[in-house]
């Protein structure tokens, strides 16, 4: 071994030691908003099989913590949003929460991060906004009093805490949050040597402006696209770094240049609605594999504003979750199907070379869809629920369901699924432009395939 190699080795060893517990390791967000997911013990096996080193849950579910007993996974748990207002005013409540949710597992589960609320500043609930930092102080006091020294307190925030994120050096927190919430929050994080937990989704930024942002730049697979920030001269090679540095500069702007980032969520949907762009298995696998490669590199890569900095991270999510509301992409962020099968091969250790993966299915929706879309009954819809959703849809608008009434063109065959598909499509065709969605609690999905039959023509929207 040459002297230089030896020196380099020592140097990278030093680097990895100095970053201490905050190693470049990746984990998963274990969301549970599905009615068909694997039970906790099986889920924990699956998390380990994906080579995750960390896991985050969105509560303190004792069944999951029980299943995590004795594993090496570094665990993040969460105080639910709706408790913050009361906890912020009452130390006894904070103590009780920590005593009943954390204490029973502290000696057998590696609970390392206690997150207070989830994307609190994304909601419009002023009371909860103002409770955030006081609740964090109270939870920390409880954790300290019980002597749980390894637990850091934080709170995941989304990119919407910024009012400007471009160019990255122009990163600025929303003015209405800065003095009132962000400064006290950053002071807390700085003093306690905690992290700024950030949920960061290049997918949504790209999808909102696919003309100006190149897809490869958002997927971290561009080899020939760079952006140089005129404010700093720093050169970016992907959108993810740009978004992270916008937060770094926003913190710097208010006097906290050194708070570390922790990626509390990132990912790319493997599917979505017909009227959404770029949500497919190819892009999802590409983004997640590229992120894993970047964030497991040794020594750490960091970002242009913070080269060489370790970035602990959690990929969203373990499963596709069928009970998440919102657009179809929300229900398609998983690495796994609800039955536990991989959607595509992936290895969170970063040790599988990309060349070892089989080719992925070609993306078909990287351009905006043009054509007709219908809103039809989802495959596994519950028939009881379907009857009430049909009733609801038919009660909206003008003559929404006339053709499926006796004597109407779509009445026969008298099938619940066909009639509900008519009702959903007819409802959506009238209300999409004023914010109506094709969702119906998961009973409905968009399709580009015309469900019309016989002389029954089902209404559609046209993009
Ligand atoms: C908060 O406290 C009030 C007053 O004690 C109580 O009525 C309410 O149920 C509490 N809220 C929650 C979410 O526990
Ligand atoms: C704080 O919470 C505890 C436990 O629920 C309750 O007994 C007590 O009355 C609360 N204190 C105040 C001031 O609301
Ligand atoms: C920088 O951010 C401010 C808002 O904080 C915005 O008004 C301005 O347009 C941004 N500058 C650029 C070059 O985008
Ligand atoms: C942040 O923490 C560091 C180290 O503890 C300290 O030196 C610095 O003054 C703090 N910054 C602010 C703005 O409080
Ligand atoms: C970058 O390379 C890709 C593939 O080689 C090519 O399709 C694309 O046009 C190039 N983009 C730029 C900005 O040169
Ligand atoms: C799991 O679900 C997926 C998607 O529905 C399906 O393609 C796959 O065959 C299922 N795997 C098993 C083992 O049932
Ligand atoms: C359908 O939903 C109803 C309540 O909405 C529930 O009681 C019933 O068990 C569900 N049926 C199935 C097969 O899941
Ligand atoms: C239904 O008809 C009424 C009266 O003609 C009209 O005011 C209303 O806007 C219509 N609603 C929809 C959803 O088209």
TrEMBL record:
It is found in: Cell membrane. Keywords: Cell membrane, Disulfide bond, Glycoprotein, Glycosidase, GPI-anchor, Hydrolase, Lipoprotein, Membrane, Signal. GO terms for cellular component: plasma membrane; plasmodesma; side of membrane. GO terms for biological process: carbohydrate metabolic process. Coiled coil: none annotated. InterPro entries: GH, Glyco_hydro_17, Glyco_hydro_17_plant, X8. SMART domains: X8. Pfam families: Glyco_hydro_17, X8. Residues 1-20 form the signal peptide. It is an enzyme of class 3 (hydrolase). It catalyses: Hydrolysis of (1->3)-beta-D-glucosidic linkages in (1->3)-beta-D-glucans. Residues 373-458 form the X8 domain. GO terms for molecular function: glucan endo-1,3-beta-D-glucosidase activity. Its EC number is 3.2.1.39. Belongs to the glycosyl hydrolase 17 family. This is glucan endo-1,3-beta-D-glucosidase. It comes from Actinidia chinensis var. chinensis (Chinese soft-hair kiwi).
């Amino acid at each position: 071994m040459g002297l230089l190699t030896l020196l380099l080795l020592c140097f990278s060893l030093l680097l990895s030691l100095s970053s201490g517990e905050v190693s470049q390791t990746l984990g998963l967000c274990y969301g549970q908003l599905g009615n068909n997911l694997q039970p906790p013990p099986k889920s924990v096996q699956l998390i380990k099989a994906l080579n995750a080193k960390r896991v985050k849950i969105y509560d303190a579910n004792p069944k999951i913590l029980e299943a995590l007993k004795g594993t090496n996974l570094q665990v993040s748990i969460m105080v639910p949003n709706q408790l913050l207002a009361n906890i912020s005013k009452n130390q006894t409540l904070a103590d009780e929460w920590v005593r009943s949710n954390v204490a029973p597992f502290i000696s057998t589960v590696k609970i390392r991060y206690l997150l207070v609320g989830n994307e609190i500043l994304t909601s419009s609930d002023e009371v909860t906004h103002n409770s955030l930092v006081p609740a964090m102080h109270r939870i920390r006091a409880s954790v300290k009093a019980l002597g749980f020294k390894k637990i850091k307190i934080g709170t995941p925030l989304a990119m919407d805490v910024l009012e400007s994120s471009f160019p990255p050096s122009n990163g600025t927190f929303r003015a209405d949050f800065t003095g009132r919430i962000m400064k006290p929050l950053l002071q807390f994080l700085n003093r306690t040597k905690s992290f700024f937990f950030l949920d960061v989704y290049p997918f949504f930024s790209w999808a909102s402006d696919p003309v100006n942002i190149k897809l490869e730049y958002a997927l971290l697979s561009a080899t020939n696209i760079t952006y140089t920030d005129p404010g700093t001269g720093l050169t970016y090679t992907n959108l993810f770094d740009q978004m992270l540095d916008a937060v770094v500069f926003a913190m710097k702007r208010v006097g906290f240049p050194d708070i570390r980032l922790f990626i509390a969520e990132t990912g790319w949907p493997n599917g979505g609605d017909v009227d959404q762009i770029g949500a497919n298995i190819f892009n999802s696998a590409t983004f997640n594999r590229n992120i894993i490669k970047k964030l497991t590199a040794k020594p750490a890569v960091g970002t242009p504003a913070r080269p060489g900095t370790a970035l602990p991270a959690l990929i969203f999510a373990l499963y596709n979750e069928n009970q998440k509301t919102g657009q179809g992409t929300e229900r398609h962020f998983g690495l796994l199907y609800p039955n536990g099968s991989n959607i595509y091969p992936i290895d969170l250790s970063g040790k599988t070379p990309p060349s070892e993966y089989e080719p992925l299915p070609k993306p078909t929706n990287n351009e905006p869809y043009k054509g007709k879309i219908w809103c039809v009954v989802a495959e596994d819809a519950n028939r009881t629920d379907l009857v009430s959703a049909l009733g609801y849809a038919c009660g909206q608008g003008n003559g929404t369901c006339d053709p499926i009434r006796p004597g109407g063109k779509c009445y026969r065959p008298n099938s619940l699924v066909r009639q509900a598909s008519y009702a959903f499509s007819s409802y959506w065709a009238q209300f999409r432009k004023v914010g109506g969605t094709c969702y119906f609690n998961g009973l409905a999905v968009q399709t580009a395939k015309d469900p019309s039959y016989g002389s029954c023509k089902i209404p559609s929207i046209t993009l």
